[in-house]
From TrEMBL:
Domain of life: Bacteria
PROSITE patterns in UniProt: HTH_CROC1
Annotated protein name in UniProt: Helix-turn-helix domain-containing protein
Domain HTH cro/C1-type: 24-78
UniProt source species: Paracoccus broussonetiae subsp. drimophilus
UniProt-listed InterPro entries: Cro/C1-type_HTH, Lambda_DNA-bd_dom_sf, MLTR_LBD
SMART domains: HTH_XRE (SM00530)
One Pfam family this sequence matches: MLTR_LBD
Length: 278
């Protein structure tokens, strides 16, 4: 089993200078909660919540975490809120290269290997590729080599005019799917790097093809990724695995994206090209 690229990529935790009350209000507004609704969810009085937001009352550590949980605040941002409230961070932020993360790296390797002969990648929250299995080159075949050096962003690689885009038969539909998904990520995380990435991706050509356009029916369950290949079109449906019980920020921000065959021909082709791992 081969994994490549920078498995040690690590995004350091950013501790801001804004007050806890300001951060709490920003997340509350972002999640479209009124003070009353959040107070009811967290089982506290609206008056007390108002005092916490205004800085007139200091929350306990338990209350910080309770409010953050109800607002679905990412673990790294929960640490930031704790520090702003005067408490130590609750969640570790160790990179995958740390000695005590060996077991995690092995788990991810096994997960990627388990998807073979189908392509699968491990990605961080910014969509940087951390690792991949041996079947991924069927997706990246023919892309500009400069897009595969350094920290490789999977979404940039997909929609860049010198990336996968020229091979994507249903580029307008797939591009729309990616932009919607990235917009959803931004809604959840408010990550500025993702906002910048979205603007970059929007600037790329959308793609229009007179032939080979895929028609979608109401009964279809997902938008496929349809790629041109010398031996025929390959059709994939993507599936995402996240680590929902993670208490380490690195793992919580990670996902595994697998591309499963959407038709029999694609499945047969991949089985012929890539033997499953022993």
């Amino acid at each position: 089993m081969e994994t490549t690229l920078d498995f040690g990529h690590h995004r350091p935790m950013e501790i801001g200078t804004s007050s806890f009350g300001m951060q709490l209000r920003q997340w509350r507004v972002r999640r479209r909660f009124t003070q009353l609704a959040l107070a009811l969810e967290a089982d506290i009085s609206q008056r007390h919540l108002s005092f916490v937001e205004s800085g007139r009352s200091k929350p306990s550590r338990e209350m910080v975490l309770r409010l953050a949980e109800h607002l679905r605040v990412p673990l790294g941002e929960q640490n930031r809120m704790l520090v702003a409230a005067g408490y130590a961070p609750a969640y570790g932020d160790r990179p995958l290269t740390s000695p005590d993360m060996v077991g995690t790296r092995e788990m991810i390797d096994r997960l990627l290997a388990g998807y073979q002969p189908y392509p699968a990648l491990a990605l961080d929250r910014s969509w940087t590729i951390l690792a991949m299995n041996k079947a991924v080159p069927v997706l990246t075949e023919g892309v500009d080599p400069t897009l595969l050096t350094g920290q490789v962003n999977a979404l940039r690689l997909t929609l860049h005019p010198q990336g996968l885009a020229p091979r994507i038969v249903n580029l307008p539909a797939w591009r729309s799917h990616i932009l919607r998904r990235l917009s959803h990520d931004i809604e959840l995380s408010a990550d500025q790097s993702l906002i910048d990435l979205l603007e970059e991706l929007k600037s790329y050509p959308g793609g229009h093809r007179a032939a080979g356009r895929v028609a979608y029916q109401p009964s279809d369950i997902a938008v496929p990724l349809v790629l041109d290949h010398p031996r025929g079109q390959l059709s994939f449906i993507s599936a995402t695995t996240i680590f929902g019980t993670a208490v380490n920020i690195t793992l919580a921000d990670m996902m595994v994206e697998a591309f499963l065959p959407a038709d029999g021909w694609t499945a047969e082709f991949l089985r012929g090209e890539f033997d499953p791992v022993d």
